[in-house]
Amino acid sequence: LREEALAAVAAADTTAALEEVRVRYLGRSAGLTEIKKSIGRLPPEERREVGREANEASREIQQALGERARDLAAAEQARRLREEAVDVTLPGHPFPEGSLHPTQRIIEEVVDFFVGLGYRVAEGPEVETDYYNFTALNIPPDHPARLMQATFFLDEGLVLRTHTSPVQVRTMLAQEPPVYVVVPGRVYRRDSDPTHTPMFNQIEGLAVDRGLTLAHLKGTLAAMARHVFGGAVEVRLRPSYFQFTEPSVELDVSCFVCGGSDPGCKVCKGAGWLEMLGAGMVDPAVLEEVGYDPEEYTGFAFGMGPDRMAMVRYGVPDLRLFFEGDLRFLRQF
Ligand code: PHE
């Protein structure tokens, strides 16, 4: 019985099999246990001998079980470690990753820049009233300037906003100066060609405070341009005209795409400068319209087109590509 048990212990090749062997040879109904129970019925002169033998056998089996259990546990752990080993030299699983739309990148960079200066982000409705889109911005009804905006008119005096400037008015009506807001948003005009789409994006900016001048406007926008297009770009202002700013300017950025005034440069067309945005000092008529005192407060405003900025920065020839959702285009960013 002892030999048989020891052989079974040696043959058990898993922890579970070993447990079965233990039950079979040392368990309550095992042969050895029976022998021990029957010792009392033996003639007294045999009891000692049989008892000693039985105890020795069970000690020996127990010891063999213990050793085998230790060996099996070690072997099982070694196998598990081997199976679960991670080969860090294998190529990883590809992780499909989206990317930001090129326009969205510009928007986030510009907005982050102004938030860093302490500006607040404001938003307004895309379906706008005639009043906010035009009248409050010093563009009276029947004024020919409205025609320049290629407006989508809706019913009942509503329009699709043609610019983000109505949010200037909404912001000023909602709070007292000082005002520092940046306004990203979609705008709409009846236009479609390689550089115009019926929907596009604008980022408006408005600052109203005591003592603001055109110099603050220029310094602010120069810092913005360097943040977005690189520290080396220069800016210049050119006179322009908007109904809601006086004076009005356009801001050009030095051609950072192909360097200087290279006549072969398609983006800058040999001019060395890129038109970047419209801006100006808030017209006193607009300040009065929202109840601000133009004698006490002055302000500057600007409006830029992040889609155009993305075209320039990434060398995209056709604005319409930005709105078609073609993955072959979008995956390049
Ligand atoms: N709203 C003007 C446009 O759409 C841009 C602008 C904004 C000009 C703010 C001056 C001040 O063309």
UniProtKB/TrEMBL annotation:
GO (cellular component) term, any one: cytoplasm
PROSITE patterns: AA_TRNA_LIGASE_II
Name of the protein: Phenylalanine--tRNA ligase alpha subunit
Residues the entry annotates as binding Mg(2+): E246
Gene behind the chain: pheS
Reactions the enzyme catalyzes: tRNA(Phe) + L-phenylalanine + ATP = L-phenylalanyl-tRNA(Phe) + AMP + diphosphate + H(+)
Native source organism of the sequence: Rubrobacter xylanophilus
Manner of cofactor binding, per the entry note: Binds 2 magnesium ions per tetramer.
Names of the cofactor(s): Mg(2+)
Chief subcellular location: cytoplasm
Taxonomy, superkingdom: Bacteria
Residue ranges occupied by any Aminoacyl-transfer RNA synthetases class-II family profile domain in the UniProt entry: 104-332
Subunit annotation: Tetramer of two alpha and two beta subunits.
One GO-annotated biological process of the protein: phenylalanyl-tRNA aminoacylation
UniProt EC number: 6.1.1.20
Pfam families the UniProt entry points to: Phe_tRNA-synt_N, tRNA-synt_2d
GO molecular function, one term: tRNA binding
Ranges that cross the membrane: none
Keyword Cytoplasm among UniProt keywords: yes
Membership in a protein family: Belongs to the class-II aminoacyl-tRNA synthetase family. Phe-tRNA synthetase alpha subunit type 1 subfamily.
Cell compartment(s), UniProt: Cytoplasm
Keywords: Aminoacyl-tRNA synthetase, ATP-binding, Cytoplasm, Ligase, Magnesium, Metal-binding, Nucleotide-binding, Protein biosynthesis
InterPro entries: aa-tRNA-synth_II, aa-tRNA-synth_II/BPL/LPL, Phe-tRNA-synth_IIc_asu, Phe-tRNA_ligase_II_N, Phe_tRNA_ligase_alpha1_bac, Phenylalanyl-tRNA_Synthase, tRNA-bd_arm
